[in-house]
């Protein structure tokens, strides 16, 4: 994913962390509780293993999710939201609510003139 350049208002920084097709959905899933990689794959139909692994690595690097290796046989790794990630989830929830209002507004506008 292409990273946005620095900005003074912080929006580019926030979008760099949450940008990407799957990051908001991943954040929601781990917000509900710790999830194994296979659980995330089942919960997010359409995501490839490669993309999911990449997005999880980026989110871990940004401090949004934590990876916990249980050191068991067979191997068990879980991903959970961090406190920092919870604060981002609050912002994403506000954006989601705005998106719902925006869709209702657009629907009320009727078809656009061609």
What does this entry look like structurally?
With 114 residues, the protein is mainly alpha-helical. Helices cover 57% and strands 11% of the residues. Strands 1-3-2 form a three-stranded antiparallel sheet. β2 and β3 form a beta hairpin. α2 (23-32) packs across α5. The longest helix is centred in the last third of the chain and has 27 residues, at 83-109.
Could you provide a short overview of the structure?
By secondary structure, the chain is mainly α. It has helices at residues 11-18, 23-32, 37-43, 49-61, 83-109, and strands at 35-36, 65-69, 77-81.
Which descriptors would you attach to this protein?
5 helices, mainly alpha, single chain, Arc Repressor Mutant, subunit A
Q: Topology of this protein?
A:
Layout: H1 11-18, H2 23-32, E1 35-36, H3 37-43, H4 49-61, E2 65-69, E3 77-81, H5 83-109
Antiparallel strand pairs: 1-3, 2-3
Helix pairs in contact: 2-5
Separation of the first and last Cα atoms: 34 Å
Major sheet description: 3 strands, antiparallel
Number of strands: 3
* Shape descriptor: globular
Average residue-wise pLDDT:
88
Radius of gyration: 17 Å
């Amino acid at each position: 994913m292409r990273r946005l350049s620095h900005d003074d208002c912080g929006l580019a920084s926030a979008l760099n962390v949450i940008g990407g097709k799957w990051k908001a959905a991943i954040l929601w899933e781990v917000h509900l509780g710790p999830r194994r990689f296979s659980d995330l794959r089942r919960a997010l139909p359409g995501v490839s293993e490669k993309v999911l692994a990449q997005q999880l690595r980026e989110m871990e690097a940004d401090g949004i999710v934590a990876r916990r290796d249980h050191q068991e046989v067979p191997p068990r790794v879980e991903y959970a939201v961090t406190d920092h990630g919870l604060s981002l989830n609050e912002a994403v929830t506000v954006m989601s609510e705005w998106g719902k209002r925006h869709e209702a507004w657009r629907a009320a506008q009727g078809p656009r003139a061609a």
